[in-house]
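Known limitations

Structure tokens in this collection are predictions and should be treated as such. Users comparing against experimental data should check residue numbering before alignment. To illustrate the layout, the record for Glutamate 5-kinase is reproduced below. The input appears on top and the generated tokens appear beneath it.
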Amino acid sequence: MQVVSEKSSSANDWRRIVIKVGTSTIVDASGEIKYPVINRLSQTLTQLQKSGYDIILVTSGAIGVALQQMKMLKRPTDIPSQQALAAIGQSYLMAIYNQSFAFYQQHVGQVLLTYDVFNNKQMLQHTIDAIEAMLAQHVIPIINENDVIAVDELDHQHSFGDNDRLAAIVTHETNADGLIVLSDIDALYTDNPYVNPTAKKIPLVTQVTPELMASASGSSDLGTGGMATKLYAAEYLISKQRQMILINGKNPATILDVVAGKKIGTLFKGV
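Generated tokens:
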């Protein structure tokens, strides 16, 4: 496992930043929407945007939000039901974001993507052009996977993995300086800290090794991602000479500390 525990770099020189929010960050284990967290996220990203940063938000949570709206206790296993929930939840999720950001007088725009966009140069260029146009107008793009039609990514192949890989690809294709991933854990550890109290925090990872991947497993109850998908995203970004930072999403204002250069969470950066 190639990890470094001393003298890590920071994100204080980043100007274009992708922030990825997982389902567990905005929906709690009982299925209730975490409105205060979304509000603090909106406030934080608005503050960064108004300070001159280019901000792109990649969000999961459509199905998690729909479960709460439809008063369903468990995520269905059949694909058509998941597609329906994605459609219901996405509209409500964007309504929440719109209302939350509007309170801080920040405009946002929705971008729904499928995996084939990145395999089609013309479609990809159109997508990037739209994102660039929004950023030029000081609008924060809010990106999610179009789970209504991208059925392979629901419960089958997980090509994006709860949007961790999607966020990594967006980071690269939009030429962002780095990706900040908000999770339900505050860093990468040598083992699962909820199970092993002796697990140690890893502040810097310079290479995602097979040993590191083998130590990552599990996913949240409402989402499809876990630590493994985050490591795949980090591996991808390191291969593209880009960086990723994993932090706890409980208090999104911590993003400001990351951007200020404080050593928080785990930084993934090639040597």
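For this record: The CA atoms of residues 26 and 35 lie 7 Å apart. The radius of gyration is 17 Å. Please report discrepancies through the issue tracker.
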